[in-house]
Amino acid sequence: MPKRSKEDTEITIQTIMDAVVDQILTLGYDKMSYTTLSKQTGISRTGISHHFPKKQDFATALDGRIFRLFVEKLDLDNGLAGFSSSWITALDDEKFKATLRLLFHHIASSETTSEFAKRGIDRLYNLCLERFGEESQKELEWLLGKSLIRLVR
């Protein structure tokens, strides 16, 4: 069998990643599996695991993309009150909640927090600090706590 071209490999990876995003947002990270990805993409489970040996590798590869999906639901232009209000409103959005579940999963699922979760939390803190100043840190912590409680209800 001839070796696959770099372009073919990139197309395969992008196909997998598109399916990962879709499944994280619709099924949730916990229900997404190599089997569900294989069914959606037509790529064998072995083929998927060749590019992403561990499930956590998907989150790492999607890091920036997931953060953008998360932040697009938030009002960054109308001060801390607008940000906070938009966050609370976004808690009714299934895709927003799915990104929160992914973040919380990677915070709580292992003995050491994954780099994905650390970067996500750092990005949120830095975003709030840059946009809204020091007082936003407590608000962000309150929003994260409220989100966690809301997800378990």
How would you summarize the topology of this molecule?
Blueprint: H1 6-26, H2 34-41, H3 45-51, H4 56-71, H5 79-90, H6 94-108, H7 115-132, H8 136-152
- Provide the gyration radius in Å: 17 Å
User: What's the overall average pLDDT, rounded?
Assistant: 89
Would you identify the regions where 5 or more consecutive residues have pLDDT less than 50? none
End-to-end CA span: 52 Å
Helix and strand pattern: HHHHHHHH
Helical segment count: 8
Strand content: under 5%
Summarize the structure in words.
- It is elongated and about 55 Å long.
- It has eight helices and no strands.
- The chain is mostly helical.
- 20% of the residues are buried.
Condensed summary:
The protein has 153 residues and is mostly helical.
Features:
single chain; 153 residues; mainly alpha; 8 helices; elongated
